[in-house]
Amino acid sequence: MTGKTVLITGASAGIGKATASELAARGARVALLCRDAAKAEAARGEIRARTPSARVDVVPLDLRSLASVRACAAAVLGAYPRVDVLVNNAGVFPPTLRLTADGFEEQIGVNHLGHFLLTNLLVERLAASAPARVVTVTSMMHAGGKIDFQSFRAPAKYNAFAAYRQSKLANLLFANELARRLAGRGVTSNSLHPGGVATEIARDSGWLMRIAMRVVGTSAEKGARTSVYLASAPELERTTGKYFVALREKQPDPAALDESLAKRLWDESAKLVGLP
User: Fold this and answer.
1) pLDDT mean for each 10 residues of the chain (276 residues)
2) Which CATH architecture has domain 5-273?
3) Residue 166: which of 265, 236, 263 has the closest Cα?
4) Which residues contact 34 (CB under 8 A, 6 or more apart)?
């Protein structure tokens, strides 16, 4: 990874931080795209303590705000002549209904729409840096998910698990559609399930879920292995439009392979975030 520039959203903790630490140790210049500046600086300090020669930057990004996403993309384009890898890692799982600054249900707004906009704003820089990669962290919980476009702004009722499944299905549909749209441009797009990882995503959930995740969840370092693999493995340079679990390609739920749904999601998402 020496000489390559990697951007990772939500890299101040959990899987994102572990992914950043490993890729920095392998020689990449890593940018932590994070909402909490203090936590991001602490993460940068930890990464550099592990790898003193690491090149690690912090770029502000709040996926709850499309204005922040646009500002982040502008900062990235101004600072990095090339972008070799974008890891769409950040995610939220609020137990009660919350809205983003732009009025979207928070899980679809952060987990999908924010990353959708960020990727599209950076896609030309990725293509100019080819061979390049987009890695999207989804979840096995995409299975059973349904895309309800009405719920993006005004869910009739809120169910945290249903909203999470929807956002993770959206991640997969987006990653697969991106792969199709970038075919022949030297940019791959793959997605992954990191496994059950004890991260901060459930920090706002009830105490029982938090305890359960700590007990049964694997470490962030183990959870990051597939992200690192998709970002760096030479044998995957031309692999695109695939879904991975535990370093192996897997077949996702059939809904994730629905090309007509993926195209509709792309078009609707573009309208919602203000893209042509």
Assistant:
1) 98 97 98 98 98 98 98 98 98 97 98 98 98 98 97 93 98 98 98 77 52 60 97 98 98 98 98 96
2) 3-Layer(aba) Sandwich (3.40)
3) 265
4) 9, 10, 11, 12, 40, 43, 58, 59, 60, 61
| Extents of the domains making up the chain | 5-273
**What's the pLDDT at 213?**
46
Query: Which of 92, 101, 148 lies closest to 264 in space, CA to CA?
Result: 148
If one counts every other C-beta atom within 10 angstroms of the C-beta of residue 232, the result is: 20
46 contacts 17 by C-beta, under 8 angstroms: yes
Catalytic residues: 164
Which pTM does this prediction carry?
0.93
DSSP-derived secondary structure for 78-103? HH-S---EEEE------SS--B-TTS
